[in-house]
């Protein structure tokens, strides 16, 4: 990984562009994601990642999803963009790059338990495919914890609604 004494986001950006020109699209996306994990507010890295993804062999599968993100105004959310790209890398069989990208998404962070759970699940699958059962199981457990928490929230919401109906 290239690190300059100046702004690290520029180093990640340049690394991503260089890897893209070498035809190493998955590695380029991992470089952009790593930079966003360090500086989630970098519009240059986010735009670079989207452009690299759209120039990659995954364009046909990513483009409809990205268009949906634009309609929902989520195309500027670093967590959402990085996690979508990471899951697409996983689907395309780029397991090593998907791990880098998905772990970058977790470093960027989100308030949404459901989205975080989705990343945990994808990381579990990626590590399983790489033969790392220990990390796979760890992420699977985190996904299960999120699912339990979401289940409790859903149950509490249902009980609150039910109670409101009974009182009226």
Structure explained in plain terms:
The chain is an all-alpha fold. It has two domains: 110 residues, Serine Threonine Protein Phosphatase 5, Tetratricopeptide repeat; 58 residues. Helix content is 79%, strand content 0%. The radius of gyration is 18 Å and the shape is globular. The termini are far apart.
Topology:
Elements lengths: L7 H14 L3 H14 L4 H12 L4 H13 L6 H14 L3 H14 L4 H17 L3 H35 L1
Helix pairs in contact: 1-2, 1-3, 2-3, 2-5, 2-6, 3-5, 4-5, 5-6, 5-7, 6-7, 7-8
The termini sit apart by 62 Å
The number of strands is 0
Could you describe the largest sheet, including whether it forms a barrel? none
Radius of gyration computed on alpha carbons: 18 Å
Beta-strand fraction estimate: under 5%
- Main CATH class of the largest domain: Mainly Alpha
Alpha-beta classification: mainly alpha
Query: Portion of residues in helices?
Result: over 70%
Low-confidence stretches: 1-6, 154-162
Question: If classified by CATH, what would the architecture of the largest domain be?
Answer: Alpha Horseshoe
Mean pLDDT: 88
Task: Enumerate how many helices there are, as a single number.
Answer: 8
What is the third-level CATH name, the topology of the largest domain?
Serine Threonine Protein Phosphatase 5, Tetratricopeptide repeat
InterPro entries: TPR-like_helical_dom_sf
């Amino acid at each position: 990984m290239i690190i300059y004494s100046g702004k690290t986001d520029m180093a990640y950006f340049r690394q991503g562009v260089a890897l893209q020109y070498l035809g190493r699209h998955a590695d380029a996306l991992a470089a952009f994601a790593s930079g966003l994990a360090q500086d989630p507010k970098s519009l240059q890295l986010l735009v670079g990642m989207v452009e690299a993804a759209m120039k990659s062999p995954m364009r046909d599968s990513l483009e409809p999803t990205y268009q949906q993100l634009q309609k929902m105004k989520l195309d500027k959310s670093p967590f959402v963009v990085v996690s979508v790209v990471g899951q697409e890398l996983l689907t395309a069989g780029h397991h090593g790059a998907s791990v880098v990208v998905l772990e970058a998404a977790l470093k960027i962070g989100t308030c949404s338990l459901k989205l975080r759970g989705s990343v945990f699940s994808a990381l579990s699958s990626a590590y399983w495919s790489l033969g790392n059962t220990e990390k796979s199981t760890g992420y699977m457990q985190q996904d299960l914890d999120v699912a339990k928490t979401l289940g409790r929230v859903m149950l509490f919401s249902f009980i609150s609604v039910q109670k409101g109906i009974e009182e009226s």
